[in-house]
Design goal:
The complex is a heterodimer of chains A (about 260) and B (about 280). Helix content of chain A is about 35%, strand content about 25%. Chain A has helices at about 50-60, 80-90, 105-120, 125-135, 155-165, 185-200, 215-220, 235-240, 245-250, and strands spanning about 10-25, 25-35, 40-45, 65-70, 75, 90-95, 175, 205-210, 220-225, 230-235. In chain A, the strands form two sheets. In chain A, strands 6-7-8-3-9-10 form a six-stranded mixed sheet, with helices on both faces. Chain A has a four-stranded antiparallel sheet with strand order 2-1-4-5, with helices on one face. Chain B is globular and about 65 Å long. Chain B has helices at about 10-55, 60-70, 75-95, 105-145, 145-155, 160-195, 200-210, 215-240, 245-280. The model of chain B is unreliable at about 1-15 (pLDDT under 50). In chain B, helix 6 (about 160-195) packs across helix 8 (about 215-240). Chain B has about 280 residues and is mainly alpha-helical. Classes of the chains: A alpha/beta (about 260), B mainly alpha (about 280). The interface between A and B is medium-sized, with 18 and 14 residues.
Chain lengths: ~260, ~280
């Protein structure tokens, strides 16, 4: 349980050491040790109720652990408050499961929200940054998209607007909360592609929380499995396939998404 | 206590009956404690909302939007209800006063009932139905679609962004709408008593001016401020604390309307008692 501060290594953007968290009598995280690699797509898989979302909220300082440390670029963010935690939060962009766009704001206002709340930028600059993102995420080919409200957008577009909002403040780390939940296979592939492309185009570190095995093995550079509040397996897809943990196998095989022993 | 050794059989029986008592007390006072706890949570939210009022950024636009929605948006319904409340009060007043041939008192009757009771209470109930329910639904659906979580990821406090503007706008707009209700209600009374029942305007006005006190209006407006706060607080509390899905949002909306309507009427009673001490009623 005693955790030693990791030596600073530029390869790892986020390093979690000995993270514990309980809600009342229920222990959700039981000593998480996990590293997320800079510039790569890091995936945390696990069934529902295994603590994935709780772990994610800790990364952005939205929850405080009972004990343990989270180092973002070597800085321990546990216990930071107000201005200090806000500064760390600017390194993150979060893409919500169902986009979580603000209903009362149009597309431009939604994307510009983080800039407006965090800085005093001239209108022109905000607008040009928003338009740049609309272009890069292929949202500008829809006529009048800037003035549309979330209710007028399709699910896929909402997701991309949500991604644009997460990217607008040029984060170093993008968190995706179950990005493919409830999507059909084609939409899932599109989202996978979007995650990969974003990682390449924007050079961000991606952290994806998922229980979708197929897409995990398609896009993941590093995969960690969360089971019962602990990390039970961690490594590259090839490493996980080579030495499958029984719990991992149990989770994966019923889905039929991945065949062990067959190289992907 | 000294004879209560572990081997004492009566000790066991006593323990048994005491747990029974605890359970009984729990069953009787449990709901009461629950109610006290919920009341406390409302007050906590109120406290947080007011603390955030004085912190930057002030986001004036959010306040204006809410004031527009609660105030301007409620104008038609307030005017409609106000007109007919005044008219009905005049009608009933004339019928009662006719027994003593004192119909000229109708102006006073309408004026004072509107100022003290009808305007603040009906305005609060109408705005609860219209704006309070909308607040609970909006905040509830923002909660279940993670929009409230999204705010926190941009270091925006959801109470600051969502609750404070609604609370302040309600507190500011309820007295304004109450005054609108008063004016339109008097117009309704005028139409019935002067135009329909042909009561002498001079006498009605004279008695109205002499007997309706500015303090009556002050009392009504003070009440409306407190009703506005209670209404917005109940609506925001219910909306903010939705857990689950669309069904829960519906339940929260119902709960918000019920709890703010009830609290308006209960508060009304206690406020009357308090104000009777401050302004002892004159010859009513």
């Amino acid at each position: 349980m005693t955790s030693v501060a990791p030596t600073r290594d530029d390869r790892w953007q986020i390093q979690i050491r000995g993270l514990y968290k309980s809600f009342g009598a229920q222990q959700v995280l039981r000593g998480i040790d996990l590293d997320f690699e800079r510039g790569k797509t890091n995936i945390v898989i696990g069934g529902s109720g295994q603590g994935k979302s709780v772990l994610m909220k800790h990364l952005m300082g939205l929850l405080q652990p009972d004990s343990g440390h989270i180092y973002v670029d070597g800085e321990d963010i546990v216990g930071l408050r107000d201005v200090a935690i806000a500064k760390v939060q600017r390194k993150f962009g979060m893409v919500f499961q169902y986009a979580a766009l603000f209903d009362s704001l149009n597309v431009v206002e939604n994307i510009a929200f983080p800039l407006i709340e965090r800085y005093r930028l001239p209108r022109g600059e905000i607008l040009s940054r928003v338009r740049d993102l609309l272009r890069r995420l292929d949202l500008d080919n829809v006529p009048g998209v800037e003035e549309k409200f979330p209710a007028e957008l399709s699910g896929g577009m909402r997701k991309r607007v949500g991604l644009a909002r997460a990217l607008v403040d040029r984060p170093q780390i993008l968190l995706y909360d179950e990005p493919t939940t409830g999507l059909d296979p084609i939409a899932t592939k599109n989202v996978d592609e979007m995650i990969r492309r974003t990682a390449d185009d924007f050079g961000v570190t991606s952290v994806v929380i998922s229980h979708d095995m197929a897409s995990t093995f398609r896009i993941g550079d590093r995969i960690a499995m969360l089971y019962d509040g602990k990390i039970v397996a961690c490594g590259t897809p090839a490493e996980l396939l080579a030495a499958p943990d029984p719990r991992l196998r149990e989770f994966v095989e019923p889905s039929g998404a991945v065949k062990f022993g067959v190289s992907s | 206590m000294s004879d209560a050794s572990p081997t004492n059989p009566s000790g066991g029986a006593g323990e048994f009956s005491s747990t029974k008592v605890v359970r009984l007390v729990g069953r009787v006072f449990g709901p009461l404690l629950g109610a006290v706890a919920i009341f406390g949570l409302h007050l906590t939210l109120l406290g947080r909302a007011f603390t955030w009022l004085f912190r930057r950024p002030f986001r004036l636009r959010l306040y204006l939007e809410q004031m527009e929605f609660i105030g301007v948006g409620s104008l038609p319904i307030i005017m409609l209800v106000g007109f007919f409340s005044g008219a009905v009060t005049a009608l009933q007043g004339i019928m009662a006063l006719a027994m003593f041939d004192q119909q000229r008192w109708v102006g006073y009757a309408v004026g004072v009932s509107l100022a003290r009771e009808l305007a603040p209470v009906f305005t609060a109930l109408m705005i609860t139905a219209r704006a309070g329910s909308a607040m609970a639904t909006e905040l509830g659906s923002m909660r279940i679609t993670e929009q409230i979580d999204a705010l926190t990821t941009f270091a925006v406090n959801p109470v600051h962004y969502l609750v404070t503007p609604r609370l302040v706008a309600s507190i500011l707009m309820l007295p304004v709408m109450t005054m609108v209700f008063n004016v339109v209600g008097l117009l309704g009374g005028y139409v019935i008593s002067i135009l329909v029942y042909q009561i002498d305007l001079g006498q009605v006005l004279e008695l109205f001016r002499h007997w309706v006190d500015p303090a009556d209006y002050v009392q009504g407006l003070i009440k409306s401020v407190i009703f506005g706060m209670a209404m917005a607080l109940a609506a925001c509390y219910q909306g903010f604390n939705v857990r689950g899905g669309a069904k829960e949002v519906g339940r929260a909306t119902t709960a918000a309307v019920v709890s703010s309507s009830v609290s308006v009427l209960v508060l009304d009673y206690f406020l009357i008692e308090i104000m009777n001490v401050i302004w002892p009623s004159q010859g009513m």
